[in-house]
Amino acid sequence: MNAIRQRLLLGLLAGLSLVLAASGFTAYRQARSETNALFDYQLQQTALALRNQNLLALAMGGDSDSAGDLLVQIWDRSRGLLYVSQRDQELPFSTRSGFTDLSWRDRSWRLFALHAGDRIVQVAQPSNVRLRMSADIAFRNLAPFLLLLPGTALVVWFGVGAGLRPLHRLAAAIQRRHPTALEPVGSDRLPAELIPLVHALNDLLARLGQALDNQRRFVADAAHELRTPLTAVRLQADLARRAGDAESRNSALRDLDAGLQRAAHSVEQLLVLARLDAEPAARFEPVDLLALAKAAVAEQSATAEAKGLDLGLLAAEPASVAGDPGEMRVLLDNLVDNALRYTPRGGRIDVGIQHAAAEILLWVRDTGPGIPMAERERVFDRFYRGVDAGVSGSGLGLAIVKRIALRHNARIELSDPESGSGLQVTVRFSRPETVSRRG
Q1: DSSP secondary-structure letter at 379?
Q2: How far is C-alpha 94 from the chain's CA centre?
Q3: Which of 134, 164, 186 is where one domain is finished?
Q4: If DSSP states are collapsed to H, E and C, what string results for 223-276?
């Protein structure tokens, strides 16, 4: 805080000094103009008074005008010097009537010459007299303000300190908080300049609270989801260790491998959800849905063939949406994987892309048991697997799909196929006019 106070003090004093300097220069220029006018009038009046003056009286020192800083010289028409008030300051003859600025023997003079009859009267004055008097006048005008500078510094010092006092109170209030206290900071009775800071701090606290909630939820989800498969893996390992023959041991090892795969799948799904909760939306770019669908179908085709399922991509036109390619691939992989898990042997799974008036639709349709209407809202909850679910899984696939869809401002619909049993999951993307960053 002292640094802010010092910077403000130095800045204000520097500004005030510049103003005083400009004022001093202006005052000096004004004083010099007025002094020149006054002394020029004095030179002129002195010359007029001496045009008919008796030279003998002047020589005897009877005229006081010759004293002081003025130099009086009287010449005749033949340039003969009749009188000079100061022999050591004699100036050359001036042929020009009126005022003249003269430089003589490294000294500047202001001279007035008056031609009167057979005389030429010259009255001169050193220029430094005028400069000194102008500076004295300007200094006397500015002296009160210069004396006020220390007082102004004290006023600014304590004034800035009083102005920063609310900031000190705010910092002290935040410092006294418990680390787990993430409620918003009150903005009552705070200066208007601190309101944006408090709002930004409250926004940070809200995001920090959300991040901590996500972390706690992830820990709770991981403990909930991994408890059962890890217990099963431990039992299967114990069975394999106690198996009395090779066939029993191989059967236990197969069960152990399946349990490990389920646990690994659950861990992968949990990590995906944790990343989606923690990271902000990425910078979106054009995503080719048709190429994405072809890659997903090709990658899952071996699994579909092993389960006796017909997995394919229906004829579709190219379509592009604004999104994150990695997240879009995770979305489609989870939809296809979910269909593969629940569709019985001999069934069919189709992936399609469709253009609508203002939307682009990506859908996955299967011939599985479908989802009852009463459960279609809850299937997007984490770890919900349905009342009649007889297939192993983590219950996180559709939760991941919904989270990614929300990050892409897309909508998800669950519906029955046009014919037969099964389920169709449709993701509706807004048709992009331009690719932009959205969250």
Answers
A1: G
A2: 72
A3: 134
A4: HHHHHHHHHHHHHHHHHHHHCCCHHHHHHHHHHHHHHHHHHHHHHHHHHHHHHH
Looking at residue 128, what DSSP letter applies? H
For strands 348-355 and 310-313, give the pairing.
Answer: parallel
Instruction: Report the CATH number at residue 424.
Output: 3.30.565.10
Report the relative pairing of strands 108-116 and 285-288 from DSSP bridges.
unpaired
Q: Which two tokens stand for residue 111?
A: 């001279």
Shared domain for 28 and 96, answered yes or no, is: yes
Closest CA to 239 of 222, 254, 226: 254
Q: Which distant-in-sequence residues (6+ apart) come within 8 Å of 55 by Cβ? A: 74, 82, 83
pLDDT tens column, 409-434: 889 989 888 877 889 999 999 886 54
Q: What is the pLDDT of residues 150-185, one digit of tens each?
A: 887 788 777 777 777 777 777 777 887 777 777 778
How is residue 147 written in tokens? 């004396």
Kindly report the backbone phi and psi dihedral angles of residue 221, in degrees, each rounded to the nearest multiple of 5, phi listed first. -65, -45
Helices (H), 354-425: 397-407
Q: What angle do CA 405, 408, 410 make, to 5 degrees?
A: 55
Whether residue 263 sits in one domain with residue 298? no
Q: Which of 108-117, 130-139, 259-268 has the lowest mean pLDDT?
A: 259-268
- Report the DSSP beta bridge partners of residue 348: 310
User: Packing angle between helix 195-242 and helix 127-175, nearest 10 degrees?
Assistant: 40
Q: Are 209 and 184 in contact (CB under 8 A)?
A: no
Bridge partners of 311, per DSSP, are 349
**Per the structure block, which two tokens stand in for 219?**
């820990």
pTM: 0.50
Does 305 share its domain with 421? Answer: yes
Query: What are the distances in angstroms from CA 165 to CA 151, 194, 387?
Result: 21, 11, 62
Question: Does 297 have pLDDT greater than 50?
Answer: yes
pLDDT at 254 over 60: yes
